[in-house]
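DATA SHEET
Item: assembly model
Revision: 1
Owner: S.N.
Input lines:
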Amino acid sequence: MVKIVRRPHLAGMRKLYVVEILGGLLTTLAHVLRNLFFPEKLPTVFYPENRKAIPAAYRGRHRLMKREDGSPRCTACMLCATSCPAFCIHIQAGEADDPFKEKYPVDFTIDLLRCVFCGLCVEACPLDAIRMDVPLVSFAGYRREDVILTKEILLQHENADYAHAPGYNPHRPLSVTHGVHYINFLKNIK
Amino acid sequence: MQKMITVNINNQEYEVQEDCNIVEACDAHNIPLQRFCYHRYLPVDGSCRTCMVEIETPQGMMVTTACTTKVKPGMAIYTNSEKAVAAQKSALEFLLLDHPLDCPICDKAGECLLQDNYFDFGRYDFRRTVARYFKGGKALNAGEHIVLDQERCILCRRCIRFFDEIVRTPELGIISRGHESSISLFPEKFIRNPYSGNSADICPVGALTLKEFRFKQRVWFLKKTKSICTQCARGCSIYIEHNKNTVWRFMPRENPALNRVWMCDRGRFSFNKLHEKRIFTPLKHQEEISFNQLYDDIAELLKTRRSGEIAWVVGPFSSNETYYALKTYCGDNAVCLMPPASGERDDLLMLAEEYPNAQGATFFGLQTETAPLIDKIQKGRIAALIIVEMDLFNLRNDSFAQCLMENIHKIPLKIYLTAYRDETVARVDYVVPVRTYAETNGTFINATSLLQKACQALVPEHPDIDAACIALYTIATGARKHQRRYSDASEMYDKLRSHYDELRSFQFNQIPEYGIALNMPKRADEPFKGIHVDFNVCSTAKPLEES
Ligand code: SF4
Ligand code: SF4
Ligand code: SF4
Ligand code: SF4
Ligand code: FES
């Protein structure tokens, strides 16, 4: 269906445009004066000197969470790699010494150049081992290697103030580490 | 052919084979029914109690296990009645009661019957009120290839029955009673039998896992290609399971006429060989050259020689297509050497002949008598020797290899077609890299005269690497790349089939999954001699997708 939009019919003074132009100039002038005399009301942020607070649900760079003993929480189940639409998570699993841990990631790489920041990896993780809550707005690099995250980089967040932040984790309670809890959890969301 | 009878399943009439059990009857008609302990090629056990159905008996309706009940004419069976479903769900709930649910670290996840059945038949409400009982016993070293996890075991006894009834080396048993029962090795035992890998396949959960596969890949990443095992003349049907152009495991593929669903460990763990010691660039006197130069050089050198002066030596390792190319394009001086049969053998599957296609060489009428060729070599009448896919200089106690070593200086030109960097590579003038059997299509004839196809699973490292049959054709005819008649080995098969009555009606992609039984003398007994293995086989059965 075609909808025809007619030109607005202009009549009288409006046809001269002068009044309209003057009105526009007046708005601009008002802004100039307000910015001159009340700079604190400026909507622009003087980044990077000033930074806005990052919202809680912000999807930032990934990090890998740790257990109490400092080892990665990740068990290399590859569910994140499976769900990743950009195929940018590469995990190599290995046999852990502790038979109750059994499996751990020998290597864990995320290629940020390919990542589309969809957050599916975080949602897929059954252990809350991967989060996207590193509060960085810009993590560009000069070389490709700078933006390919290795296991070491992903685990480096010891003293960072976001280390215990809840982070982006939309669907899971924080300590789903055992099947029983998980079934309880499924029960509750019904 | 067995007699067919009519039964009534969920108020619908179905034709099933007389004497088969209800599980097989349901499978034959795609009626979903869960099971754990039941396996087509194992004796029925009835221990997991999950395959509950309701049947009509003269005493009234009765809930019973489908795997232990044979169908009778006119029998009324309900898999989805209220009582049957309640029984199925409760049995499943008990199995999951003390289960660790460590699917993220469990190698079976993705092909686990407990996962699959729970999704289809399970109950999702959690009713446990007492603390969980922890069995412990995780990641135990239970065998040469096997890791045991007692906690994940659902006590279906499939592994026990397999070791007891088929391999007949009792190694595993169930100890303790009630909820404390767990699977365990017999004292002083270690799973060491040559078929142990199968126990990990049939284990419906992740209680038995393979050391060679543990944590290498998640199963849902693997692509399956139908192929055969080439480690002995039995030629068991297998799947090559691969991802990212790498083979991660071999899995037996059901073939009721051959290996059923089993394979030996020698074959199963040979998959690494496909990636070891490979050769990808042509060599001229051990210097790397290009493929163009290689084929140009060889064409130039062979052009000046009469065909009587050129000898071709092949082993029983090549595909039928390679034998056909030798027979058709390479003249009369083609000989097939048979190395001594020195491997381990038994009455189940393994044969002493550690090569896949001796029958193929016979089928295509290749010469196996080496005396005339030895004579010619000794007299210096052979000007060029072309060795095809056989590590000739590594053969011990073989008269031909012996003669060759002694008279090597009398042959001015030696060409070797190989996929691997082996001993012979260092002794020849030209090395032509070819594909492994996993990188090309091909057909093989096993010791019991079954022709099977092995499909291409991997992409070769370099696009110019050809299958041996095509490289042979190129060398023998001097054809340039654009003049070639064949671009794929399956085209060679499609050419050769027209010459043989038994093959004529099957194009390469129509060769049946279970192979074509050829009418020629067999080299070995049928597998599983004197051992009962077809416990629940019925003629209407559908191929097993999982084991
Ligand atoms: S955010 Fe999306 S694209 Fe990026 S690694 Fe996770 S799943 Fe892959
Ligand atoms: S989903 Fe979680 S536990 Fe699994 S591999 Fe990814 S980060 Fe590790
Ligand atoms: S056996 Fe099956 S259900 Fe149990 S942990 Fe392994 S994959 Fe999960
Ligand atoms: S180890 Fe596996 S096959 Fe053996 S009884 Fe347990 S679940 Fe069944
Ligand atoms: S499958 Fe019938 S009882 Fe286990």
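QC remark: Residues 3 and 18 of chain B are 6 Å apart (CA to CA).
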